[in-house]
Write a structure and sequence with these properties.
Blueprint lengths: L3 H8 L12 E6 L6 E9 L2 E10 L2 H14 L4 H5 L3 H7 L8 H17 L6
Antiparallel strand pairs: 1-2, 2-3
Helix pairs in contact: 1-2, 2-5
Amino acid sequence: MFNDIIVKNFSEPIFAAEMDDATQTIELGNPVCGDRIKVQLKVANGHVQIARYQAWGCATSLATGNIFCAHVQGKPFSELLSIAPNEVDSMLGEIDPSQHHCLEMLHELFVRLSESLPKQMQ
């Protein structure tokens, strides 16, 4: 039912927290299933310095928030803007068709991240 990537990120969510000093917030939800992910970022000097998330929904949604934060924290904007869709596709590993909404949410997190990065630093 769940692959090792989902189990690890759901069971050990090292990025699950709320930040008081976030400089960027990305929130999205799936209107069909009701899953929601809120990501808070601290960005400065052309990098995502800190990434934290809160998620509500299925185990795969919660794991998706952790996976996203793991992939963006500490990365320069230039690297984040060059992530290809097929690279995002592999981040969750093999998932059941019923979990594909989480892959769509992961793609949307990267889209919204690229839209929210300070334009002068891209």
